[in-house]
Amino acid sequence: MRVDRFLSNLPRFNRQQVRLALVERRIKVDGQIVSDPHTEVREFSRVECDDEVLQAGKAARYFMLHKPAGCVSATRDPEHPTVLDLIHEPDKHDLHIAGRLDFNTTGLMLITNDGSWSRRLTQPQTKLAKIYYVETEQLITPEYAETFARGLYFAFEDLTTQPADLQLLAPRAARLAIIEGRYHQVKRMFGHFDNKVMRLHREQMGPLTLDSALKPGEYRPLSAAEIALI
Ligand code: URA
């Protein structure tokens, strides 16, 4: 939220005092004096007034997990193990998943407590490709690539999927790049041809690729350079 709104929400300031404190350059966000009332304050920002800390700022956390098959992309589930069961970090219930995968889908999963970062990664407007390795029951014909590139109509959502890129790797294996992450999107796209997806593995989300050193079920923190890519 804006810094003026953040300060006005505190019992100690009224709007007039907020304006004054900003003009008098008494407010710092992340160590920098701010006077612009539009300056953004996030849960991760440190906010000070006259060097008194008003908000300490939570640490933003980012992890890459190699999701194994047979676990649910949820933070809690009454029946099955969840991806969060694989994460051993303090306050792990503050974390959320940026782009879910189905129970038996494997591969790259990004987990964070930073909502704006995960939105940038997953919202279709940012046009970051999610790349999947797919194995199917039936042959994949050249018609698939043309249909996926044109977009498929999904009646339930009443939308046409954005152009997707399909590269054939073998008669029943392909690499598919999609922009959105609609419910069961890849399975529904192949389902259009009555072709069942037998194996699905996410290799990449935008510029982030699954670390080949991570075995299924393992995870690691993202580096500062990886975080800054999104
Ligand atoms: N599309 C699917 O159908 N399943 C996934 O897990 C991911 C994308």
Automatic annotation (TrEMBL):
<dbReference type="InterPro" id="IPR036986">
    <property type="entry name" value="S4_RNA-bd_sf"/>
</dbReference>
<dbReference type="InterPro" id="IPR020094">
    <property type="entry name" value="TruA/RsuA/RluB/E/F_N"/>
</dbReference>
<dbReference type="Pfam" id="PF00849">
    <property type="entry name" value="PseudoU_synth_2"/>
</dbReference>
<dbReference type="GO" id="GO:0160136">
    <property type="term" value="F:16S rRNA pseudouridine(516) synthase activity"/>
</dbReference>
<comment type="similarity">
    <text>Belongs to the pseudouridine synthase RsuA family.</text>
</comment>
<dbReference type="InterPro" id="IPR042092">
    <property type="entry name" value="PsdUridine_s_RsuA/RluB/E/F_cat"/>
</dbReference>
<dbReference type="InterPro" id="IPR000748">
    <property type="entry name" value="PsdUridine_synth_RsuA/RluB/E/F"/>
</dbReference>
<dbReference type="Pfam" id="PF01479">
    <property type="entry name" value="S4"/>
</dbReference>
<feature type="domain" description="RNA-binding S4">
    <location>
        <begin position="1"/>
        <end position="58"/>
    </location>
</feature>
<dbReference type="InterPro" id="IPR050343">
    <property type="entry name" value="RsuA_PseudoU_synthase"/>
</dbReference>
<dbReference type="InterPro" id="IPR002942">
    <property type="entry name" value="S4_RNA-bd"/>
</dbReference>
<keyword id="KW-0413">Isomerase</keyword>
<dbReference type="GO" id="GO:0003723">
    <property type="term" value="F:RNA binding"/>
</dbReference>
<comment type="function">
    <text>Responsible for synthesis of pseudouridine from uracil-516 in 16S ribosomal RNA.</text>
</comment>
<dbReference type="InterPro" id="IPR020103">
    <property type="entry name" value="PsdUridine_synth_cat_dom_sf"/>
</dbReference>
<dbReference type="InterPro" id="IPR006145">
    <property type="entry name" value="PsdUridine_synth_RsuA/RluA"/>
</dbReference>
<dbReference type="GO" id="GO:0000455">
    <property type="term" value="P:enzyme-directed rRNA pseudouridine synthesis"/>
</dbReference>
<dbReference type="InterPro" id="IPR018496">
    <property type="entry name" value="PsdUridine_synth_RsuA/RluB_CS"/>
</dbReference>
<protein>
    <recommendedName>
        <fullName>Pseudouridine synthase</fullName>
        <ecNumber>5.4.99.-</ecNumber>
    </recommendedName>
</protein>
<keyword id="KW-0694">RNA-binding</keyword>
